[in-house]
Each structure stands twice: as structure tokens, then as C-alpha cells.
Amino acid sequence: MTVNEVTTPFEWLGGEDAVRTLTERFYDLMDLEPAYAALRAAHGSDLTNARQRLFWFLCGWLGGPNHYTERFGHPMLRARHLPFSIGIRERDQWLACMAQAMRETQVPAALRERLEQSFFQTADWMRNQGVSV
Asked: Which residue, 78, 73, 58, is CA-closest to 123?
């Protein structure tokens, strides 16, 4: 499939298998890299649930199957993350970890740039520490 034939980022990325690979690498890096320690600490001892939910969420967010909304309804990301302290450090670690995962799983550069912009907007909106209310 050429880029011109692709209709969604989900298809451009390569479908569910590619989203699963990206999600797994993201959480593997969070576990492995000391640079993501604050982010990892916020996730508790077991990442199984987080891995599955991010996979489900990303599938729909990228234009694929709506696994997350079928199970839980509207994502309400900010509301679901309010119990967690999310500041600039956590935002930046999440973004860096995802950027590294996208590079390492060979997400096409043009798609990676688009996703990094969208991820930044979402991650910045999720901050609940160090923001004016």
C-alpha cells in the first residue's frame, strides 16, 4: 500500500500488529530506560493493564477499530488521568518514550512527525501540575 492509498494513520502505520508492536516497545522502554523513571513510577508495579488499554486506545485514535470506546465509552483522557500527578516532566518523558518507540519500530518519518505533534497537544492538555487553572 502506498502513502497515497492510505486513508488513516492506523493504515499508514500498518494496522493492529504495528500498533501492538509500538505499544509494547513503548512500555518496554519505560521499564528499561532510566530517563523514563518518573513516568514508569506513575504506572504501578504491573504494566499489563496499561499496555492493553493504550493499544486499544491507539487503535481507535489512529482511525482503526474502536476497541477502547467499545469497552469503556468515551476515553475522557483528562478526567481518567486526573488522579495522577502529570507535570512537564511526566509529559516530556511520555513524549520522549513514545518518540523513541516510534523510531525503534520504524514508524515512517512523515507519520512520526504528525503523530509527535498530536501526541504533544494531547500530552500537554493532560498536565494537571504546574498549570494555571
From this structure: 78
Angle between helices 88-104 and 16-32 (to 10 degrees): 120
Q: What domains appear along the chain, each with residue ranges and CATH number?
A: 10-126 (1.10.490.10)
Measured between alpha carbons, how far is 87 from 31 in angstroms, rounded to an integer?
20
CA distances from 106 to 14, 25, 57, 85 (A): 11, 11, 20, 31
pLDDT digits 0-9 by tens, 59-108: 999 999 999 999 999 999 888 888 888 999 999 999 999 999 999 999 99
Q: Is the overall model pTM greater than 0.85, yes or no?
A: yes
